[in-house]
Amino acid sequence: MQILGIDIGGSGIKGAPVDIESGALSDDRLRLATPQPATPEAVAATIGNLIQHFNWQGPVGCGLPAAIQNGIARTAANIDPAWIDLDTEQFLSRKTGLGITVINDADAAGLAEMRFGAGRQRDGTVLLITVGTGLGSALFRGGVLVPNTELGHLDLNGQVAEHYASAATRERLGLSYKKWAKRFDMYLQQLQELFWPDLFIIGGGISKKHAKFFPYLTVKTEVLPADLRNEAGIVGAALAAVPPGTDP
Ligand code: BGC
Fold first, then answer.
1. 138 close to 110: Cβ distance less than 8 angstroms
2. What is the pLDDT of residues 192-225, one digit of tens each?
3. 3-class DSSP state of 180
4. Is 134 close to ligand 1, i.e. is its CB under 6 Å away?
5. Would residue 98 be called left, alpha or beta, if left means φ above 0 and alpha means ψ between -120 and 50 degrees?
6. pLDDT tens-digit readout, 126-137
7. What's the 157 CA to ligand 1 centre distance in angstroms?
8. Can you tell me the distance from the alpha carbon of 123 to that of 55, in angstroms, rounded to the nearest whole number?
9. Is the four-CA dihedral 166, 171, 173, 178 of positive or negative sign?
């Protein structure tokens, strides 16, 4: 079975059809720029372009950088505030004419890593952190997701954690990986003290560069880079749209 997975990020909207049995992309992924401002209308139009590009007619799963409660967006830290309280599934399905399931973007990446990646067969407490425009989190216990943890919004050194330690902040301030790793390590220490996870998985674009900053992390908890790297968000969004009762 194939599902179109779409990962809506602060700077790019990426999509590809996903084979949900294997977790592999069944076509080259396409990345389009996130419209600015990222209003629901503008994002729906970009999703429409992705659907057209893949000539897609089946189910679609979307990861959105917002807390998503029963399809309704509750926050909008890096997207337009017009998303707040919108029934995103109803809205995007109406705009595109296809059945669209929406999940938090970090939760999507977590689902993919737990099934196909670094979290495979890890039963304890696993905390995946995606590092990009913001900091996203996905918490698992015994392989089961606790959705919408939004741990990028904890207070860190007097600031919102994602303002202090995201990849966007590293780039904006021109911090070396070593300098930035100190901030990120502080963040992981805080998460360790609050959750005592058995494993941290680090995802997002920066996970490709893990060799540049993992050596500076001092946290005791085991830390692994996301296996699916930046594709986890696409694969997990597709997994979220698997019809109930189907066992991939
Ligand atoms: C949002 C989260 C999202 C994270 C990563 C945060 O600003 O609040 O919902 O998962 O960014 O995109």
1. yes
2. 999 999 999 999 989 999 999 999 999 999 999 9
3. helix
4. yes
5. beta
6. 999 999 999 999
7. 19
8. 38
9. positive
204 C-beta closer than 6 A to ligand 1: no
Question: Ligand 1: does its nearest atom lie under 6 Å from the Cβ of 110?
Answer: no
User: In angstroms, what CA-CA distances link 189 with 104, 144, 184, 226?
Assistant: 24, 23, 9, 19
Strand blocks (E) in the chain: 2-8, 12-19, 24-25, 30-33, 60-64, 68-69, 72-73, 100-104, 125-131, 135-141, 144-146, 155-156, 159-160, 199-203, 222-225
**Ligand 1 and 34: CB distance under 6 A:** no
Question: Which has the closest alpha carbon to 202: 172, 224, 222?
Answer: 224
Residue from 109, 111, 126 nearest 232 by CA: 109
Q: pLDDT band at 78, cuts 50/70/90? A: confident
Residues in the chain: 248
Q: What are phi and psi of 177, to 5 degrees?
A: -60, -35
